[in-house]
Amino acid sequence: MNLHALRIFAEVAKCGSVTRSAENLLISQPAVTAQIRNLEKEIDLKLITANGRSIQLTEAGEILAVYSKQLFTLETKIEEEMQNIRNGVKGKLRICATDLPGSTVLPKWLVKFKKAYPMVDVQFSKGSSQTAYQRLQDHAVQLAFICGEAKEEEGIEYFTLLEDELIFIVPNNHHYNGKEISLEKMMKEPFILREQGSYTRKKLFSLCNASGIDMPLSQIGIEGMKESIEAVKAGYGAALVPALAVENELIKGELGRVNIKDLFIKHPIKLCKRKQDEPLSTATNFISFIKAELNL
Fold first, then answer.
1. pTM score, whole prediction
2. What CATH number has the domain spanning 163-267?
3. What is the architecture, at CATH level 2, of domain 91-161+269-293?
């Protein structure tokens, strides 16, 4: 069926007049009449009859008018949906993040973003850096957020969002709280160590090896950043943690910080996406939203 002719017929059926339909469609009256006649020939049914200066729909015309209205209403809905997806107003946003960004900055960013884009379906998962890279490469997520020194992965590009650092924390009543000491002195304190494979554990071992210093003799091995921080708050030893993870505790005085002489450990939070792969509009909008939040 000729959809152009059907569209003209639908306008005639709505207006009840060939003349008004022609004016609305910005075409000539004879052109409207010709399209109606072509449609009637195509379906082999009479659709309209003259009724003075207006027109009268036949039984077939009345039925076709109902279906054509439904059809073009659906067409409008489809166009709106496609436009929403094209603009990132609607669609999917899939994100994977490591523990630090996943438990600190991302939740509040996602909540604000969801309020601004309520029709976007947001799914957020956490995992190791390798998990985040793999999900990104497998197209399971559009964006990944990692921290620390990112190793170059083929097909992935990085953008630094925040410049965090790794710091040594102690209980708030610890004798080194607020002081600057050497790394060697720090390593003589009891320590909370993260699990095997943890970035902070690897970094601590690397620092000690580079300085020729032994690791602390008294240790507690704890899996999880939050659990390690809670152990220090409970009064045991020290730990190497991201500053962002203990920002509130330090402000409230629930934890202490020890500064290490001539040592600053960068721990940036980075946004990762696939190279040569234009992200979906939802991801593009989220990136722009974050940059606006951070004044980047």
1. 0.76
2. 3.40.190.10
3. 3-Layer(aba) Sandwich (3.40)
Q: Which one-letter amino acid corresponds to residue 246?
A: V
HSE-up of residue 98 (Cα within 13 Å, Cβ side): 24
Tens digit of each residue's pLDDT (9 = 90 or more) over 185-194: 999 999 999 8
| pLDDT higher than threshold 90 for residue 278 | no
To the nearest 10 degrees (0 to 180), the angle between helices 18-25 and 3-15 is 120
- Taking 70 as the threshold, does the pLDDT of residue 151 lie above it? no
Residue among 59, 54, 11, 1 at smallest CA distance from 32: 11
Region 3-86: CATH code: 1.10.10.10
In DSSP terms, which residues pair with 169 in a beta bridge?
239, 257
d(CA 67, CA 246) in angstroms, rounded, equals 63
Element (H, E) at 120: strand 120-126
Which residue in 268, 102, 255 sits closest to 168, CA to CA?
Answer: 255
Please report, in angstroms and rounded to a whole number, the separation of the first and last CA atoms in the chain. Answer: 54
